[in-house]
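Treating backbone geometry as a discrete language has practical consequences that deserve illustration. The amino acid sequence and the backbone structure tokens for this protein are reproduced below.
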Amino acid sequence: MKIYYHPASTTSRPLMLYAAESGLDVEFQIVDLFTGEHTQPPYEQINPSRLVPVLEDGDFRLTESSAILKYLAEKTGSPAYPKDLRARARVNEMMDWVNTQLCRDLAYGLVYPQMFPGHKRPTDEVQKATLAWAKERAKTWMKVLDEKLIGPKNAYLCGDKITIADYYGAAFVALAEAIRSDLSAYPNVKRWLGNMKALKNWKKVNEAFDGFAASMKAVAFETV
């Protein structure tokens, strides 16, 4: 199996971490987002959306990080994607929630416009309004995650055992720290993220993105 990825990509890092922690035999091939390789015709033939990641398994191709995680876990019979109908539905629910709620406002609304020039809005006025709107919505989702979805008892998103929802969600929540949010207002989120950071491959998988975030230490970010 091969995965096209980039280590700075939020949707690539869950696959990198899951593969490393699970000992999967996967070839990772970098697509250089910073030089625009993903927009060139050769890669467009692989993924018409011109995004990473993409999985190739023989003649089968699959896009979308969430779908790829599910495929990898199902193919290998991983307990991180439980067979029980309701337990699996809960994992799917959490991954969808991250994708449709938290990701939209925290990642695309608040973090990316501040970190990546390609996501910055065309005028200062629009940028300011975008960040203000996204900040309040992201804070709402972080509060829901902290108080309702994780709560004081869960070690992980779906209970006391790690699932692919944790691999997926942790990459997005960690974006808040990349813009120097201290997460003190969300103690359960902070505790859960600490559990994910304790994984033996977390540091290695995230070192490229962490280094990129550290290079922006002079930037004054809007945080959650």
About this structure: The helical segments are 13-22, 41-46, 65-75, 85-115, 124-150, 164-178, 187-197, 202-214. The mean pLDDT is 97. DSSP finds eight helices and four strands in the chain. Residues 113 and 162 are 31 Å apart (CA to CA).
